[in-house]
Each structure stands twice: as C-alpha cells, then as structure tokens.
Amino acid sequence: MNGADESASSDGEPPQSVQYGLDILGSAGTVFLVGLLVLAVSGIWPPLVAIESGSMEPQMERGDMVFVMAEERFAGPGARDGVVTAATAESSGYNRFGRPGDVIVFAPNGSDQRTPIIHRAMFYVEAGEKWYSRADPEYIGDAENCEELTNCPAKHEGFITKGDANGRYDQVQPIKSTVVRPRWVIGTAELRAPGLGWVRLSGPG
Asked: Name one GO molecular function term (predicted).
C-alpha cells in the first residue's frame, strides 16, 4: 500500500462507481435522443399502439405493435383532414395494410376515457348528410333507409370507419362510435411489428 485511493484505477480511469453512473447517464441520454427522434418523425406521443382485438385481421393481429404517425404528415393523395378514405383511395390506388384507404387510430366518441380504436376510414360524410345511399349494403345490417340506420343522417361531419374483419361499420354499432370527427383522430397507422405488442398487453395492470 502506498496510500493511494484503492477505488481508483492505476491507469487514471475514474472510480468504478463513477463509471457506472456515467454509463447510466449515457444510456438514459441515448434513450432520450431516440425518443425525441421518434417524436419528431411521428408527431405524436406515444407513437406505438398494441393491437388488443382481432377486428383488423388479417392485416393486423392481436398482439402486434403498430407505429402511428400524425395524420397530417405525409398525407396520401386526396386526403381529407390528413386521412385518405377507402372510397377516395379506390380511384388512386392508394393502399395501406393490404386494402384501400388509411387505417386510423381515433378516440371513440371523442372520449379519452375509452381505449382508442384502430380501424379503416371508409368514407367521409358532411353534417346532416343522409349517407345510407353511399354505404355498402353488406355493412349496414338490416336497415332499409337512412332513418333505420344508426347515425344517419350524420349529426356532424367526419369519417365512417370499420374494422377489416368486422361485418358492420362502427357507426352502425352504437357501442363503437358515432361519426368520427377529424379532431378525434389520433393518427394513421404506418408500420406493423408482429407480436411485439404482447409485451405491453401482458404488462402490469
């Protein structure tokens, strides 16, 4: 022993505890920078959602993780409020996740107390529009006119939506959502990572 600090290395490196702290700060800084980059690209936070149901099968499976981007960024041809509907996309050939139109994440009935829904935007309606004639008969149930169709005429402008695997428009099912106002749209689905959502779905709570 020559009186030197035993915690210091012989080659001038900082003590192990200091190095450990620097490593943690470096890792935290990297995560922070990556988060800023993802936020800059997506425009929303959090930019990832886990698929909780099979309503978008086979394009999206339960347990998948989906990257979501603010709808006004890189909007496709003929977009309305940043969203290309399936009706518009049919003429332009714009496909997302295997079918025409954007897949959107939205707050059902504008509520932030309910789990957001991720479904395809089918077509856009104006306030007061009797959209029965524009609907696909396969997706409206037994309704024979606008008066027999839920949410028709439209109480306000917005999107008619549907899960790819569902047999009805969301607006025909009262438990889903009324016509989706543009401000209720959280973003558009961009990329899918199969299976990665199980980590979030199986987490605490």
From this structure: serine-type endopeptidase activity
3-class secondary structure per residue, 166-187:
CCCCHHHCCCCCCCECHHHEEE
Q: Domain coordinates of the chain in residue numbers?
A: 14-43, 48-201
pLDDT of the chain along its 205 residues, tens only?
Answer: 444 444 444 455 666 665 655 556 555 555 444 444 444 545 677 788 999 999 999 999 999 999 999 988 888 999 999 999 999 999 899 999 999 999 999 999 999 888 999 999 999 999 999 999 999 999 999 999 999 999 999 999 999 999 999 999 999 987 789 999 999 999 999 999 998 877 655 655 4
Q: Which helix or strand (DSSP H or E) is residue 24 part of?
A: helix 16-42
Tell me yes or no: is domain 48-201 CATH 2.10.109.10.
Answer: yes
What's the pTM? 0.79
- Asked if 159 and 118 count as a contact pair (C-beta separation under 8 A), the reply is no
For residue 192, give the H/E element and its range.
strand 185-193
Buried b (16+ CB within 10 A) or exposed e, 141-165: eeeeebeebbbbbbeebbbbbbbbe
